[in-house]
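Dear Dr. H.,

I hope your travels went smoothly. While you were away I took the liberty of generating a structure for the chain from your last submission, since the lab meeting agenda had it listed for discussion. I wanted you to have the full record in hand beforehand rather than looking at slides cold. The sequence, exactly as received, is reproduced here:
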Amino acid sequence: MTATATSVAAAPRTKVVRRDIALLRVVAIVGVVMIHVSGLTTTQTTLHGKPVWWTAEVLNIGSRFCVPLFVMVSGALLLRPGSTEPLGSFYRRRLDRLVPALLFWYLTYALFTQFVLDAPKRPLTVIAVALAGRTYTALYFFWLILGLYLVTPALRKVVGDLDQRALLRLALAVTAITCAWQTTTAFIGAHSRINVVATPTAFTYWMPYVGYFLLGAALAQRPVPRSVAPRAAAGFAAATLVNVWQASGHVPHALAWVSPVSYHGWLTAVATVSLFLLGGALLPSSAERPGPLMRLVEVLGGLTLGVFAMHLLVLYGLQHAGLLTVVHGASRLLELGYLAGATLVLSFLAAWVLSRLPGARRLV
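The corresponding predicted structure, in token form, is as follows:
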């Protein structure tokens, strides 16, 4: 990963528009949906070893790049060198959209849990689980992005004081520290009874992702040479295959703590950075107007926040629609394909509809 990233650092500096950012957003949100669609299938012990179970494992573990990739894309957009945006203007523009969305969707899922899932909680408990990011699956991402937004002005000063090579080395070092922390906690947990894994809260979710945030900024400063594509593809494939291999249970015990299958694992870092570089190499920057397909990708890329917010409700609706027996997850390949495809299509469609409504645009 370091060698590949360093080769990008050697490229000449040019002012360009990244054509791959929208595509990477779409890829990341597809990964998020695949993790949640496949989750229940991977936990069904009666399906272990069957084609549907392995397919679900590939979708689930192979998509662990999704959150770090979102963060890298955000870093590429927010930490552009030379930005002179005033502090107040920056916070107004970003928080004016994110904070209403955070409050609305947390309230929506709190009501959903309370009345649809019939899991009532006391008001103080609702607030506590919200601050822990546990109101419903994956809502912690709102806190993660909010935290990164709050520290962006300070990080912009760091980016502005470093050349691209120095920024890249710093980003790789911070990312490596996060991965080493994950390995250390996994090792301690595997070889002792000490519980060193602290529960993250609304105030700390962003911290392990600063390295990825800086990596996105460093790698977006120069175009990615097309020659990087084969190595990036190989890095992504190798890291993903080893991560998926861990699901088989027939792997060296040490691998489970050396590189856990998590958003902070070493192999996930390799897969994420490789995918980011691959996107830049396959979709080089261009001054030309995008074609119809690229315009569609750009539209879809702009809907990813809405898809993230709504896909869990869409997935629940599909599971209980009665079309197939998937209340407890897919048990056949047809069911898995149905849940994956329908959740994606309906979530994008719902996000697009809301984006066209003046009163709802800020929520998606």
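Two observations you may find useful: Residues 11-16 have pLDDT under 50 and may be disordered. The CA atoms of residues 306 and 351 lie 5 Å apart.

With kind regards,
E. W.
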